[in-house]
Amino acid sequence: MALGRKRILVTGGAGFLGSHLCERLIAAEHDVLCVDNFFTGNKDNIAALLPNPRFELLRHDVCFPLYVEVDEIYNLACPASPIHYQHDPVQTTKTSVSGAINMLGLAKRLRAKIFQASTSEVYGDPSIHPQTENYRGNVNPIGPRACYDEGKRCAETLFFDYYRQHKLRIRVARIFNTYGPRMHPNDGRVVSNFVVQALRGEPITIYGDGEQTRAFCYVDDLIEGFVRLMGAADTVTGPINLGNPVETTVGELAHRIIDLTGSRSKIERRPLPVDDPVQRCPDISQARSVLNWEPTVPLETGLKKTIAYFDTLLRSNTYSQ
Ligand SMILES: NC(=O)c1ccc[n+]([C@@H]2O[C@H](COP(=O)([O-])OP(=O)(O)OC[C@H]3O[C@@H](n4cnc5c(N)ncnc54)[C@H](O)[C@@H]3O)[C@@H](O)[C@H]2O)c1
What we know:
By secondary structure, this protein is an alpha/beta fold. Helices cover 38% and strands 17% of the residues. The chain has ten helices and 13 strands. The strands form four sheets. Strands 3-2-1-4-5-6-11 form a seven-stranded parallel beta sheet, sandwiched between helices. A two-stranded parallel sheet has the order 7-10. Helix 1 packs across helix 7 (219-231), helix 6 runs parallel beside helix 8 (250-261) and helix 8 crosses helix 10. The longest helix has 22 residues, at 89-110. Bound molecules: nicotinamide-adenine-dinucleotide.
């Protein structure tokens, strides 16, 4: 085996972020084991990797123990969009909590380094802005988003308990809104929603007055952050915010997408869903200073690539509504 070549497990590897991560790790000449139960993931996302002998795919649900031999684990398995994680909320909590227990158990047995894809949702509807890692959040524990938010919070707790109790090497990233090719077309996330609506010439649905802000990170930037965090010194456990601190209002995003697609779609307003945060923006000072990382892809560049992906997808025979 080449020097520096590792065996790396990516759970949720057939999903949006997971498939980009697998690609990146294969390009760096590692051996990648992609584990996924295909709840929201898709074989098309990793089709290009399947012929590669260094890439292996295993259908498995992380709620059950897994016995494999690897050097590093990236734990991404969990549906990420409200439509998907609210479809079976009990399963969502199980995936985050039992999934974390199983992957941490595996890491403990192997003394492997383990990365957790946590989320800005641990901050809930934040009362401070932008959010720094020491902000403890404002989460409604009994609301419809709690299965995701509290599941991810509990997973963070488990990571830090394994770190303290078992001296595990952990990395916890709090990921903010990320977009790019291979997002699910029907997942209700704002970028994919608007792009698909614009390409179809359907009305663009804005929830609320459109003044709520989001900060959108392009997927390549985020994956670079993952790899830097995993490669950082073992004293760097996180939690560390990874996201793009440039804020855009949802209304402004809709107009940009209409312009870039040349669509004739009109804007349509709908009521704001329960517990939808009004403002969400990362403070990435830690990522800047500790990982020397910050996003570099401008929104327009990322949107163009995302639009091109959805355009091809919507025209293809494989995609149905
Ligand atoms: N995309 C974002 O903006 C964002 C933001 C914050 C956090 N995250 C986190 O990043 C990770 C990946 O998100 P994504 O956007 O790629 O979502 P995704 O839904 O595209 O990917 C999740 C993957 O996990 C798989 N999965 C779900 N439950 C599983 C289970 N029980 N066992 C095995 N596999 C399972 C799905 O099939 C899918 O392939 C998630 O943990 C998510 O919470 C993403």
